[in-house]
Amino acid sequence: MNKIDKTFVIKNNSDIVKITIFLKEILGNYPSNIRESVDIASSELTTNILKHSTTGELKLSIDDEKLILKACNTGKLSVLDFMDGRTNKNTLGIGLGVAGRSADEFYYKLSPVEITWIKYLTIKNDNKFDIVTKVEPLVFGGCGDRIIKIELPSFVFIALFDVAGHGRIADEKAKVLTKFINNHYYLELNDIMECFVEYAKDMDRRVVIEFLKLWKTKDQMEFCGIGDVSCKIFYNTKNINRHYLFRDDHETLVMKSGVLGGVKQYWMKDFNVIKREIPKSAFIIMFSDGISSSIKIDSEHFNKNSQEIIDQIFNKYKREDDRALVVIKCK
């Protein structure tokens, strides 16, 4: 396909119809899942321009690799407006979530509103990570620990959380939180956390949580967390430069202290996102408090795969609690 750059001014519904027809014509030979995603995104973004602003623009850019939609208007967003079901005269409302979940990459500015929606037209089989997860309940009937893994062409998103207690009630609370995270994974990590904090206020059970995003396109990882969950990076010292070794052969990513939900909710308000270059041949380990923080991966184990390491950790470091563990080997 020849490169296309086109800007549509959105003033009325007829402009939306023109965009829909144009996109159908140029994407006619692409798979149905791509066409449907683009149709959903263009419809939601343009409809909300008319709904929440007198005028706006939709910029379209297409090349052989990806399609980009950028919607701009004079409205204003709050981070909490990203939560499904919340809407007001200035926001994109629930349509933002529909558009975000149909994207491969999703970026935004709050004021004035600028939403960038990206869909990859060709998918590279770029398997950069060997990821294995395991959740194990302490008692029969359910588990309050959960792991959510969502993989897109440009990144892998992982959430790990621990609801207080065990059994059926903790399991039911965890199911509700899983649905919430699945609806908001497309946001920036600090914004997911702020929305999650707001959502957890109504919970009668405490919860602690961590998020990790592994970028395939720029060899970068992002992380944030609150409470007694953990993330460690174990470096293969044979394959990295010495400047990584500022904390021996491993690093513990620092959580914000706090606990969400329950009667006495507290947390550090500043959700700083930790960013690191993804180190070659390293292991990234995420775990709940059902796994001992004394985890260690010795140098002779770096030739093992993630399944072997996760089995090793469970055999040696598990505690009498619900347990959740993610092992990621970076290739």
SS class: alpha+beta
The oligomeric state of the chains shown is single chain
> For the record, what is the CATH homologous superfamily label of the largest domain?
PPM-type phosphatase domain
Helix content: 25-40%
CATH C-level class of the largest domain: Alpha Beta
> In sequence order, what are the helices and strands, one letter per element?
EHHEEHEEEEEHHEEEEEEEEHE
- Discrete helix count: 6
Give the CA-CA distance, first to last residue.
Answer: 33 Å
Main sheet makeup: 5 strands, antiparallel
Instruction: Tally the beta strands.
Output: 17
Domain module tally: 2
Topology diagram in text:
Blueprint: E1 4-10, H1 13-26, H2 32-52, E2 56-62, E3 66-73, H3 95-101, E4 105-109, E5 114-120, E6 129-136, E7 145-151, E8 155-163, H4 167-184, H5 189-200, E9 207-215, E10 220-226, E11 230-234, E12 246-252, E13 258-259, E14 266-267, E15 274-277, E16 283-287, H6 306-317, E17 323-330
Antiparallel strand pairs: 1-2, 2-3, 3-5, 4-5, 6-17, 7-8, 8-9, 9-10, 10-15, 11-12, 11-16, 13-14, 16-17
Descriptive tags:
single chain; 331 residues; alpha+beta; Heat Shock Protein 90; Phosphatase 2c, domain 1; five-stranded antiparallel β-sheet; 25% helix; globular
Compact description:
This protein has 331 residues and is an alpha+beta fold. The chain has 6 helices and 17 strands.
Structural notes for this entry:
- The structure is a single chain.
- The protein has helices at 13-26, 32-52, 95-101, 167-184, 189-200, 306-317; strands spanning 4-10, 56-62, 66-73, 105-109, 114-120, 129-136, 145-151, 155-163, 207-215, 220-226, 230-234, 246-252, 258-259, 266-267, 274-277, 283-287, 323-330.
- It has 331 residues and is of the alpha+beta class.
- A five-stranded antiparallel sheet has the order 1-2-3-5-4, with helices on one face. Strands 6-17-16-11-12 form a five-stranded antiparallel sheet, covered by helices on one side. It has a five-stranded antiparallel sheet with strand order 7-8-9-10-15, with helices on one face.
- A hairpin with a 4-residue loop joins strand 9 and strand 10.
